[in-house]
Automatic annotation (TrEMBL):
Signal sequence coordinates: none
Protein name: Thymidylate kinase
CDD domains recorded: TMPK (cd01672)
Protein keywords: ATP-binding, Kinase, Nucleotide-binding, Transferase
Source species of the chain: Neobittarella massiliensis (ex Bilen et al. 2018)
Gene Ontology BP annotations: dTDP biosynthetic process; dTTP biosynthetic process; dUDP biosynthetic process
GO MF annotation: an example: dTMP kinase activity
């Protein structure tokens, strides 16, 4: 049996596509390491890994060209299997030994993206099911802190336009603006029900400076994850 005192800390950076998750995760990792807090950095989905095969096909449109072509519960299992495999194969030992893990996306992405496919009266039952599936039945750890990067969808679309200007293709989530707007409403529900912390990242027309956002994130981590700061 695991000794609870040896459990690590799990911090998650979450947000809509184009909100700057990868950038802010990297900056937070740098700030924590400079402060003498070693960590393991993980990103989801685990593209290219066997356990991510179904979710990659889903995102490419192999199962339908719109997100809602695959139901919330079915799509959730694709991503959950990827996280289970990653925990067991790459970062579980570090976490169980008391290490700090920093995730770019996590179970929180299922909550954000799949909730948007359901009518609001079904949101709480879905969250109950999701937490039971991943944290109880699959026994991957629940986050200690979730930082949600809140960026206006119009601004995030502008940033994604720049990202893909040189080539590449948007997945079925990224190309559906109406769906991403639904996801933002779902995020407000998750913030209220799951205790996420909202980090405002833009006005209605412009993103805030990257360094300003990074500073707010680091301060929040130091406030919430007391044992490492």
């Amino acid at each position: 049996m695991q000794n609870p005192s040896k459990q690590g800390k799990l911090i998650v950076i979450e947000g809509l596509d184009g909100s700057g998750k990868a950038t802010q995760t990297a900056l937070l990792a740098q700030n924590l390491q400079r402060g003498g807090h070693p960590l393991l950095q993980v990103s989801f989905p685990s593209y290219g890994q066997p356990a991510a095969g179904a979710l990659e096909e889903y995102l490419s449109g192999a199962y339908g060209q719109k997100p809602e072509d695959v139901g919330a519960y079915a799509a959730s299992t694709f991503f959950a299997v990827d996280r289970f495999a990653s925990f067991r194969k790459s970062w579980g030992a570090h976490y169980r030994q008391g290490g700090l893990v920093l995730c770019d996306r996590y179970t929180t992405s299922n909550a954000l993206h799949q909730l948007a496919k359901l009518p609001p009266p079904q949101w709480q039952p879905y969250l109950d099911w999701l937490c039971d599936l991943e944290f109880c039945k699959m026994q991957i750890p629940a986050p200690d802190l979730v930082l949600y990067l809140d960026m206006d969808p119009a601004v995030s679309q502008q940033l994604m336009d720049r990202r893909y200007a040189g080539g590449g293709h948007r997945d079925i989530h990224e190309q559906d603006v109406a769906y991403l707007t639904h996801c933002r409403r779902a995020a407000d529900f998750c913030i209220q029900k799951l205790g996420w912390h909202k980090i405002r990242c833009s006005s209605a027309t412009e993103p805030y400076p990257i360094e300003q956002i990074a500073g707010e994130i680091y301060r929040k981590v130091c406030e919430e994850i007391i044992s490492i700061c």
